[in-house]
Design a protein that fits this description.
Blueprint (H helix, E strand, L loop, with lengths): L37 H9 L4 E3 L8 E4 L2 H8 L8 E3 L3 H7 L7 H12 L4 E5 L14 E2 L2 E5 L7 H5 L4 E5 L11 H8 L23 E4 L5 E5 L2 H4 L5 H9 L3 H4 L1
Parallel strand pairs: 3-6, 4-8
Antiparallel strand pairs: 1-2, 2-7, 3-7, 4-6, 5-6, 8-9
Length: 252
Amino acid sequence: MPSLIPGPLPGPPPTPGSELPDADLPGADLPGADLPGADAVRRALGAGRAAVLPNPSPLTYVVAAAAPHAVNTAKGRPAGQEVAVWLHADDTWQELVPALDLAPAAVRSATVLLRRELVTLLVPLRADAAAPDWIAPAVRDGHALLFGARWAPLAGLLADHPRLYVSSANRTGSPPASTAAGAAAMFGEHAPVLDGDALREPGRPHAATTMLRIAADGRLALVRRGAQDAAHGPDPAAYLRRLADPETDRRS
C-alpha cells in the first residue's frame, strides 16, 4: 500500500508495531496548496484560530485548531468540552503510545483503526503512566479521544501543525458539513474553509466518522455510528465483525 505522505516524520524510534500505516486514499496527486481557501486557512491555524478542512469521501468536513478551546468556540459549544487530538504526525503518536493501556497487539490494531479505517477512537490510558500534557483536553472517562487520518492533499498544511485538535464540522445542533459551501454557510466568520470538494464525491452520502472504543485486549465497542459502519449496512455489528476478521468481506 503506497504512503500518502513521503516517509515518517522525525521522532524517537517507534514502539514495535505502533507505526501508523497510511490508508490508500484518492487525491494523492493534488497538494493542499492548490486547494481554494488554503491561504486563509494557513493564516487562521497559524494564529491559533479554527479552520474547516476536508476529509476524503464519505467522511464529512472537520474543524481543527492548535488549541482545543478554538475548536469548541467555533462549534458554539462549551470551551472546555473534550475534543479529539489529531494524531497525523508520527512523533506525536509515539509520544502517546507509552501512556496507553493497550497490549502490543491492541496497539497494532489501534494504528490500523486510526490510519486506515479513519475512525475516531477512544483509547484507554494507563493509570500508572504520565501522559503528555497535550492529551488532557481529549480525555473522557480515562480514555483519550483520537483521530488519525493523514490525507495527501492536506500533507503540507498538517506538517506545519504537528499537533491539532479536531471535531466534525458542525455548529451545535446541525449535521456536519459535507461540502465546502455548506461549511462556509454554517461557520461564516468563525472559521475559514479549505475547499476539497474537487477531490470528493458530492453525490455520495456523507457522515461523520464512526467512533469506536478499544479495550486493553483489543476488543472493540461501537460508541457512535458513522460513515465507516454505514458502508457495511444497517447493522453496525457487521462492521465490528469485519474489523475482527478482515476475511469476512471476502467470504460474503
